[in-house]
Write a structure and sequence with these properties.
Layout lengths: L1 H30 L4 H16 L3 E7 L6 E8 L3 H6 L1 E3 L3 H9 L3 E4 L5 H4 L6 E9 L2 E10 L7 H76 L5
Antiparallel strand pairs: 1-2, 1-6, 2-3, 4-5, 5-6
Helix pairs in contact: 1-2, 1-6, 2-6
Length: 231
């Protein structure tokens, strides 16, 4: 009993350390944000290292609002698999996880035969990425035989996925704001250039007006002179 308590305490300690490690990684990635592709690759790399996985992927709903999952970041997977992988919610492992909105621990000896025939890894974890009730996608992690995932790993990944979902939402918002900011700056630059052009035109018109006024006054004086008494 005491041993079980010690192991439980150790697992909690390990979970907290890994959770803090992942949070630190995510904060660092957000602070150095470049684009969503780089962010997703960094998130996946961090998840692989923290969870000690050998390969994996991040699949997101694309386009938003649809029921299609597309791989947006991958490690250890063949390029042709990454480029062609498109799964509908409810289909395959990732689709099933997305539909159920709950993580799955896929051990080789426990796996549903219908799913086992489609896989070439011994053990895997798949967890839905959800933010404020909205399904964003699925995180898939794989490991080799002899390095099996357990219930603790599933529990840990379910804990970490909250921070991952938050980072993805923030990254998407940052990219959206950056795009809008770029559009505003471009429009601002166009307007400034238009103002400068109008200023130049106004200066030309002002000088032209001054010349016209001078010519008007000269002509008026000449006309008034002609209207005077004939000598």
């Amino acid at each position: 009993m005491e041993r079980g308590g010690a192991e439980g305490g150790e697992e909690r300690y390990v979970r907290k350390i890994k959770e803090l490690d992942m949070v630190w990684r995510l904060n660092e990635q957000i602070m150095s944000f470049r684009d969503m592709h780089s962010l997703l690759q960094s998130i996946l790399k961090g998840a692989l290292e923290v969870m000690e996985a050998t390969s994996g992927s991040i699949m997101l709903i694309d386009p938003p609002g649809s029921d299609t999952l597309v791989i947006k970041a991958a490690h250890g997977l063949r390029r042709e698999v990454v480029e062609k992988a498109r799964t509908r919610v409810g289909e395959g492992i990732a689709g099933l996880v997305a539909e159920r909105r709950e993580g799955m621990l896929l051990l080789d000896d426990l796996m549903d035969p219908r799913l086992r025939t489609r896989r070439k890894v011994s053990d895997a974890l798949s967890v839905p990425i959800i933010a404020e009730g909205e399904l964003l996608g699925v995180l898939n992690l794989n490991t080799k035989r002899g390095q099996a995932f357990g219930e603790f790993d599933l529990f840990l990944l379910n804990t970490l996925i909250k921070q991952i979902a938050s980072a993805i939402v923030r990254g998407e918002r940052l990219e959206d704001l950056r795009s809008k900011l770029s559009e505003v700056e471009k429009r601002e630059s166009e307007i400034v250039e238009e103002i400068r052009r109008l200023d130049r035109l106004l200066d030309e018109r002002r000088r032209e007006y001054q010349r016209l006024r001078q010519e008007h006054d000269r002509l008026l004086r000449e006309m008034q002179g002609l209207l005077g008494p004939v000598a």
